[in-house]
Amino acid sequence: MDNKLIKNITRQLQDVQDQENWLDENFKKKIDDIPEEQAFKRPFPELHSVAELVSHLLEWRKESIRKLKGEAAKLTMDSPENWRTNDELKKVGWDKLKSDFYESQLELIRLIENQPDEYLEKEYQDGYKFKYLIEGLIHHDLYHLGQLGITIKFLNLKQ
After folding, report:
1. 39 near 116, Cβ under 8 Å?
2. What's the Cα-to-Cα distance from 146 to each of 72, 101, 103, 139, 143, rounded to whole Å?
3. Domain DinB-like spans what residues (predicted)?
4. From CA 40, how far away is CA 97, in angstroms rounded?
């Protein structure tokens, strides 16, 4: 089976999650050592907390998983779960949030790793192909990985 592109995409997903990469940053490096009390703090009212950012990423991963499984899309920019509050997230707990976040990446990889490259050209909805979805998810992860870095830097300055 020809799936060089799929292998490349799964490697990128893994790199951003917990592997060494050119950026020398990944989610495990950024969030694994964040204590629970710090995870729910906003360094400034205008910036999201680490937990809010991780939850936001998780929700879009879950939405992508639904699409990869052929299920109907339901998350929108205006959905309440798109940006959950710290009070809501405290009820979930930091360890559970991280665990669900890491598991979502494994599920994404499991769903695509044995697909042929042609799978990426299939549409999950009119005009949108799986390649667009998965590459967009990687871009989204990288964007918010940078935001996590800024948030954590400001949190450390305030201590």
Report:
1. no
2. 30, 17, 21, 11, 5
3. 27-148
4. 11
Q: Per-residue confidence at 158, pLDDT binned at 50, 70, 90?
A: low
The domain made up of 4-158 is a member of CATH 3.40.50.200: no
Q: Check the CA dihedral 84-86-90-96 and report its sign.
A: positive
Q: Provide the CA 37 distance to its chain's centre, in angstroms.
A: 21
Distances (CA, A) of 5 to 10, 51, 117, 134, 135: 9, 32, 6, 11, 11
**Beta carbons within 8 Å of 23's beta carbon, 6+ residues apart:** 142, 145
What is the residue-wise DSSP string for 117-154? GGGGGSEEETTEEHHHHHHHHHHHHHHHHHHHHHHHHH
DSSP-derived 3-state class of residue 158: helix
Compute φ and ψ for 113, nearest 5 degrees: -60, -25
pTM for this entry: 0.92
* Residue of 94, 89, 62 whose CA lies nearest to 75: 62
47, 152 contact by CB (below 8 A)? no
CB 40 within 8 A of CB 94: yes
